[in-house]
Amino acid sequence: MKKSFKFIVTLIVLLLISTACFAATPVAKGDAQMHLVEDNVNTQTFGRFGEFEKKMVQIDTTNKTIDIQLTAKNNQESLANRNADIVLLIDASNSMAQNNVDYNNETISRKQLVLNAAEQLIDKLLDSNENIRIGLVEFATSTEPSTEGTEADAKIITNQLTNNKDTLKQGLTTIESDTMGARTDIEVGLETAESLINTSNSANTNKYVVVLTDAVPNTAKGVVADVYTEKSADPTKAKLQDLGTKGIEVISMLINISDDPIVVSSRPEDATFKTYKDVAEYVFGTALRPTTGSVYYVTDEQVVNTVTNNIYAELVPENDYILTDIVIKDYFPQNIIDNFEFALLTNPEIGNVTAEVNKNDNSITWTIDRLEPGQVATFIYRLTLKDTFSSDIVGLNLPTNENVTIDYKENDIPGDTVQNNKSPIVALDVPAPKDIPQTGSNTPIIAGSLISVAVVISLVSFIIVKRNNLNK
């Protein structure tokens, strides 16, 4: 029995010696070769305009270094430089001229009220950004009945888009004194506004048509004397949608649109639209569900405020998109931490980054208090192979990081955390005749040895027990 015990002990000692022989051994940095396996770029967006990028900018296979660049951007264009081409499409039909309203303790026509609001809007727009260009178009129907439903139902007042206040105010005076027909051809007005805005060849410019009207369409291209049916509603709605697909945003203000029943002697009894509001919502949509752009249903008292504040804010938003409280954490795998040195090569232009890796979670943290529209922040760090490193990582694919997480706020509202584990991957090789395994980790060899020895011990133990039982 003692002999058996000694035999088993001897086997266990042999097992421990064999395991020690196959354990990871230090390798000199100079004996290794490093190469790039995958040049992965980690790109992720956060919020509406935030963008993060992590990429390798340089690998030095001689000195065994990898340089990684992290970039954070706010991709919204700064509103201070935001250009716009705008056409004010103004209703000049009889209802605008014949309905009077009280404004600043005097009685003026609804048309004059809208023109006053338009003048204030022009001043405010051009005071905010002199690169904005504006054009004027009026619409109704032609005073010549034979040309109703043609291009004559709208007029270009300014022959081009301009930022000259005097030219625009003279154009408003022209509309004030001009006379057009009684009916309302919004479709041709939209087409004419489009033709004026298309005279601009400005790149990276936002395009808008602002409709200012107190009526719904009762005529359209090729339509004469409609009585508020789909004949004129459908083409107008289609034109609104068409402008939206072309990147021209339409903002519409409809004044005093009535819920009263449409009373026209020639209307069919089964007409789809029962009220003027029915027509308006069919063509323009509702404030919550517009056909395109934005729709404002207002009273006379709300005209000036809507034009000079609400519509102005859409044309030139007063609040920039700000990213704040940004926390970017870059996590490293343990084998990178154990075998590479971390060092900052550059500091970020915006925010602060930890100079050392936090060993509690193997991360560095980049904090940015505020990222304004158009701002870009970047820094670079370097991973350098240590003078001696573990043979365990030879031949393995080594991702340079494990994960990147981003927390942030946009306009003070917390956003959802985003993350991405994509990163550049490198590998190390040690050419023969260096006396270490050449194909990677020793784990399979060790595991095989353990299994083999365990099998031998089991067989020997079984034989010993059987012999002892026979000798009893």
Short description:
The protein is of the alpha+beta class and 472 residues long. The protein is built from ten helices and 24 strands. Helices cover 30% and strands 30% of the residues.
Describe this structure in words.
The chain folds into two domains: 141 residues, Immunoglobulin-like, CATH 2.60.40; 237 residues, von Willebrand factor, type A domain (Rossmann fold, 3-Layer(aba) Sandwich), CATH 3.40.50. The strands form six sheets. The chain has a six-stranded mixed sheet, sandwiched between helices. Strands 14, 16, 17, 21, 22 and 23 form a six-stranded antiparallel sheet that branches. Helix 1 runs antiparallel to helix 10, helix 3 runs antiparallel to helix 4 and helix 6 packs parallel to helix 7. It is of the alpha+beta class. Helix content is 30%, strand content 30%. About 4% of the residues have low confidence. Helix 6 links the parallel strand 11 and strand 12. The protein has ten helices and 24 strands.
